[in-house]
Specification:
Two copies of one chain form a homodimer. Chain A is mainly alpha-helical. The model of chain A has no long low-confidence stretch (mean pLDDT about 90). The first copy, chain A, is elongated, with a radius of gyration of 30 Å. In chain A, helix 1 packs across helix 3. Chain A folds into three domains: about 120 residues, MgtE N-terminal fold (Alpha Horseshoe), CATH 1.25.60; about 100 residues, CBS-domain (Roll); about 180 residues, Tetracycline Repressor, domain 2 (Orthogonal Bundle). In chain A, a hairpin with a 5-residue loop joins strand 2 and strand 3. Chains A and B meet through helix 12, helix 13, helix 15, helix 16 and helix 17 of A and helix 12, helix 13, helix 15, helix 16 and helix 17 of B. Chains A, B: InterPro entries: CBS_dom, CBS_dom_sf, Mg_transptr_MgtE_intracell_dom, MgtE_N_sf, MgtE_transporter, SLC41_membr_dom, SLC41_membr_dom_sf. Chains A, B: Acts as a magnesium transporter. Chains A, B: Its main location: membrane.
Chain lengths: ~450, ~450
């Protein structure tokens, strides 16, 4: 969908005040995301004009796709009589995200536009820490009572459904607000109109607490193929719901973050081109320095073995190949394990199974590579003894790398540190120095230096 | 949820044949995923017993979570009178996944259980290649006509809704099967019962072709926050729909795959513990060998410079640190770009913007690291000249790594090769050898060797 053409058409329709039907026809065929892309390119005046002329549901949803500052800017310049219902129509999780991103004084100004009871709800939502279930949830769900029948429920949906983010599930609560059942809209429609919700609702409900980490929420929702997940407090009172579209965003964000961490950089908070050069530099230099300091000891190791090195210069030829292979083995294991930990496939209690698996695989890999390394050395025409040294060293280095890379992510996960900090560069640097020690010690022993 | 306890209870209920209500009460509170976890642990006899006693919708959904071989095994041993409606009740994409994974003869045996028209549909679905929109879609959607009113549509849903995978969207098709509109169930319920679908349906629909890559499908669905996406052929005829739960799985799988690729291993097709040691070995050794062969030339580079090396042994101290830093910079850039390409944030036409951004960042990083490298060398007490050599080398190496890592993923993406093949180990190996050439050339020039 080409947003530039739509933008031109919309600008034209906005100017053509004599024929309001034109604008209406245009936007009727557009989705909120498309409208948000157009809004981005319009002047403030045009933005205000367009937003005020859109049906309120469409206006609210389109606004939600924009950056917090832009949302604020538009809401602030609209007449209160338009801004107030618009803000109320926006889904509560989007409102909270915006309010937390702008200045508290600006947030207060917007909060004042809301009716008191809704303002309290939003204020409460704002207290949940980032990256938790609470920060993802919306209060725009549909609740019903167990003694309502299908007919009554549908007429309730007709009354409040406009504000709900999702109507696929109806949440059955009791008089204390406790969640006692969940019913899908499909079941209500399929059942006879006089069937009470209590009869068709599932009573043993999968819920999450507000302080659960968002990654875990995503794992639960995707495991069960749900479209939404209810959030309850310790008294099992329904506080809100998390919808699958927000979880999709979480999954994407978490994967991007882990990616960047595994590449040895602090994760970027914005898409690539929105990140300034200075920001890129800052995110990268931190880890480069850590790695530099971590790697600097390789120079000391080599200095310590400079006698050996100057006696047999040939040994130095294989330094990059040996450390490289150790690092490559480590990268393979660490990435696999970090991902498996993130997906909940592996946990700390599996540590011995993981070690066993990796050591056996490491043996196979080390023997294969050792064999090839020996041939390579012979082909280069180095002394036979040096060939044996590199060949045996690589076996030990691969086993050592396997052990370190199998243990480290699991221990970090156990210590509640994100295992993705064991990035590829970090593990490579870690096994570089130890690899050199293994290499030169093997050389000393075998060559009697 | 502890599946062992549930399993015990279910086994007990299965044996307790006098009180069938007990089993009914038990499974009524369980979700399909939970039942699948229990099924996994039961004997074949118990599996058959449980499946035959479950309500058919629940039985079908539970089966869908199991591995294809297990699904086949159960279906094959059930009486035809149970297996046939069960297979028909399963969502068509799950059936297709199973049939494609088992032996063609086994697949044929199952297909024979289906009524002819449905068998044709399944046969057609099986022709779509893996990882495309076609392979993700299900034909279990609800279609309606534009002239139906809300009342008629609801009664249609009551008739066919049991088989539909999602009822949140109703697809409006014309007499030729062309998709002319989409309506959400919410809108139908909110509208007056006599409103015709044509009045409330969105006519300008976002659709995807059956041969679109699944990654792109996932990007579209997550951008628009849809719960399902219609798949059409070139005549705009509705062929099926893709639901968000399958897209969530795709997003997770693609991220896992990219992760493992970036770690320098061929992606595993199964979760970690389900992958045999031999399989792990096979997936890893391929890339280790490629990298080994790629890295082997570093030995030649060093051999070529062995004169320089033997004159100033100190130069060898910094080999791992220099190649390591080059590799780290490259890893940071490559992971960021591969992810950005995968998410559609960056494309080939941005290549000059990317190069510019990375070169400027590289300058900043190279200058900072060069400064620190100089201090480090001085502290180690090497000759001042060697300090200058390592310091200048690192600046050039960082710039060179930045350039290579900025260009390579974009070019591969352009050539329709998955840019994730430029894994961290690969880019590290690539810049290792060139880094050494830069280092020793700088040394020769500056130290007049």
């Amino acid at each position: 969908m080409d947003h530039t053409i739509i933008q031109k058409e919309i600008e034209f329709a906005l100017q053509n005040k004599k024929n309001p039907q034109h604008l209406f026809d245009l936007v009727h065929s557009l989705r909120p995301y498309d409208i948000s892309e157009v809004l981005r390119e319009l002047s403030l005046e045009e933005q205000l004009d367009l937003i005020s002329k859109l049906p309120i549901v469409l206006a609210a949803e389109s606004l939600e796709y924009l950056e917090p500052e832009v949302q604020y800017h538009i809401l602030r310049h609209l007449k209160d009589s338009i801004a107030s219902p618009l803000l109320k129509q926006m889904s509560s999780d989007a409102v909270v995200d915006m309010l937390l991103a702008i200045h508290p004084l600006q947030a207060q100004r917007l909060l004042d536009l809301l009716p008191e009871d809704y303002r309290d709800k939003i204020n409460q939502l704002m207290t949940y820490p980032e990256y938790t279930a609470g920060s993802l949830m919306t209060v725009d769900y549909i609740a019903a009572r167990a003694y309502w029948n299908g007919e009554q429920t549908l007429s309730h949906i007709r009354k409040v459904g406009h504000e709900a983010e999702i109507v696929s599930y109806i949440y059955v609560t009791d008089i204390r607000g406790e969640l006692v059942g969940v019913c899908s809209l499909k079941e209500i429609i399929l059942a006879r109109p006089d069937t009470r919700l209590g009869e068709i609702a599932i009573q043993d409900i999968i819920t999450v607490p507000a302080d659960m980490e968002q990654e875990e929420v995503a794992n639960i929702l995707s495991r069960y193929d749900f479209y939404a997940l209810p959030v309850v407090d310790q008294q099992n009172r329904l506080k809100g719901i998390i919808t699958v579209d927000d979880v999709v965003d979480v999954i994407q964000e978490e994967a991007t973050e882990d990616f960047q961490k595994m590449g040895g950089s602090s994760p970027l908070s914005e898409p690539y081109f929105k990140t300034s050069t200075w920001e890129l530099f800052r995110k990268r230099i931190i880890w480069l320095l850590v790695l530099f300091i971590g790697g600097a000891y390789t120079a000391n190791v080599l200095e310590k073995f400079s006698d050996t090195l100057s006696k047999i210069v040939e040994l130095s030829f294989f330094i990059p190949l040996l450390t490289g292979t150790g690092g490559n083995t480590a990268s393979q294991i660490v990435t696999t394990l970090v991902r498996a930990l993130g997906m909940g496939e592996v946990t700390f209690k599996d540590i011995f199974r993981v070690i066993r698996k990796e050591i056996i695989t490491g043996c196979l890999l080390g023997l294969s590579l050792g064999f090839i390394m020996y041939i390579r050395a012979v082909l280069m025409g180095v002394q036979t003894n040096v060939g044996w040294v590199v060949s045996i060293s690589i076996l030990i280095i691969v086993l050592w790398s396997s052990l370190v890379s199998a243990i480290l992510p699991l221990i970090l996960h156990r210590l509640k540190v994100d295992p993705a900090v064991v990035s590829n560069p970090l593990i490579t640097t870690l096994v570089d120095g130890t690899g050199l020690i293994i290499y030169f010690t093997t050389a000393k022993l075998l060559l009697h230096l």
